Amino acid sequence: MEDDFDTILTKLGTGKWNIIFIAAMSYWYSLVPSHAVAGVFLAPLVNHTCHLPSNTTTFISTNTTTTHDIDDDSCSFVVRDNTTGHLVEELCTQWDFDTSTFVSTVTSEFQLVCERRYLRATYQSLYMFGMLVAACFSGYLADRFGRYTIVAISTVTYSIIAVGSAWLPSLSWILAARFFLGTMHPASLLTGFILVMEVTEVRMRATIGIAQFITWSFGTMLFSGMAYLVREWRLLQTVMSIPCFLFIPCLCVMGESPRWLAVVGQHQRALKELRRAAKWNKVTLPPDQELLAIMQKVQEQASTNKQNITSQGICSTLQQLINKVTVLFRTPRMRLVTIIMCVAHFVVAMLFYGLTLAASTSGINPFLFLALSGAAEIPSSTFFIPIVTRYGRKKITIISYFLCAAVLLVQPLAPSDLTWLAVTLTITGKMLVSCVYSVITLYNLELNPTEIRSQGLGASLLTSRCGAFLAPFIISAVEKTHPWVIPVVFGLSALVAGAVILPLWETQNTRLPDTLAELEGHILPPNTTEGQTKSSYNSTGKTKAKSEDKINLTEDASM
């Protein structure tokens, strides 16, 4: 039997045990989109006019020419002074909002127009900022306390905040709740994704990894439907939050990642989980001694690497935290992976959320636009599965980025009277960037070794949240004056992101590296067969070839 953990997962195959993790996290994925892009319907740009004071009897005009033109803020009005007879401009303090589309919104309830208009973008961006802040520590917590523990805590907390924030009385409290809700986003989704991938056999990783995003797409479409039926924002948020509590029973049947348990030395717990998995999947695993030997080797490799990274005599907590970050840049391959994945994730998040939030610039019904946006994500989780499985992660990521750049750069050239063409190009760009989002997350996971996988993904998530945080402000800054700038900026960003992926290697049909040493010297190339060679990283940081047997990735899981 090969001495790596992927062989154990191959023996387990894909059965009831794996499906529990997959189904549970897929359900959670369907719940989060309605909160991640809540600003589309909860704090939208709403037509409004200045509400004149009751004692204003000599009203002349507002500073707008069209009372329902959202490009004019109606921030002031003009009256004639009864004493001097001169015209005087007064600032509006209250506004009347158009209720033909939305009965009640955060925008209308808290008067987020004129000098307070920036708070609309803030409402959306604070969620992203919470995700950014959480990216600094969620990966560390998942590596320190376990994948299941962090998923359980974050999902329960998310559910409570989501429902509670719907009935907070002040905008300050609502914005604070948005921030804390955002901090639970990566802790639940990213850690949950890692948990699913770490219990999945090699040959099913691409299919299951990408399929996880199908429910996100349906969640986006469902949110559009709910918003169409429920036009009052507090009731809408309550309706879309209550299903979160139905995830709690799933926690009772899920378990910890046996791969993580092996790396941190909790071998008996890992063995217990593997035996439960074997029973549920109705397969037979090798004797306990063989399984423990594999886990011992994985732990020793991880322990050796940590000892080499941590400077002797430095025991301060600060130094340990610095080491957690700098380990991502200590070795050549790890440094390359970290920098490229950070750039790629920054762009993909900016495009993904930016194109979703661009409903106000689409020129069509916002409910229809978001539904189409969600539908555009489905091909990335269905049609692209066999493509990614056949052609690999790297090629599909680069091609998707370049095609996305092409359609977005062409979009401003569409004639103004052909709204359908501009919308089609935007939705096509969203479909392509959704493909990148699903593939690049899997690609990043396979590039990072188990012992620091959460840290590596966390660093990428940190930069992606910067992109997601900036997206609402980019749209808000130019949506009224130069809307064509939005697809141009996004298109050029996609072009750059596609180019930076080129130096990376393919991870298709390779085992997940468990340690940094394996990443630097033990990466199996695609379709490696028995007798081919792979590299071994020596103490000087150079590689040398040696012959090793390859894991039979298509081996019958019941053997």
TrEMBL record:
Record-annotated membrane-spanning stretches: 121-141, 148-167, 173-196, 208-229, 336-355, 367-389, 396-414, 420-445, 457-478, 484-505
Subcellular location, record wording: Membrane
Domain Major facilitator superfamily (MFS) profile, first and last residues per copy: 19-511
UniProt cross-references to Gene3D superfamilies, sorted A to Z: MFS general substrate transporter like domains (1.20.1250.20)
GO cellular component, one term: membrane
One Gene Ontology term of the molecular function aspect: transmembrane transporter activity
Pfam families, sorted: MFS_1
Coiled coil segments of this chain: none
Bias-annotated ranges (Polar residues): 526-542
Keywords from the named record: Membrane, Transmembrane, Transmembrane helix
Membrane topology value: Multi-pass membrane protein
Transmembrane among keywords: yes
Start and end residues of each stretch annotated as Disordered: 522-559
Keyword Transmembrane helix tagged: yes
Record InterPro entries: MFS, MFS_dom, MFS_trans_sf
UniProt main location, coarse: membrane
Name assigned to this protein: Major facilitator superfamily (MFS) profile domain-containing protein
Species for this entry: Petrolisthes cinctipes
Lineage: Eukaryota, Metazoa, Ecdysozoa, Arthropoda, Crustacea
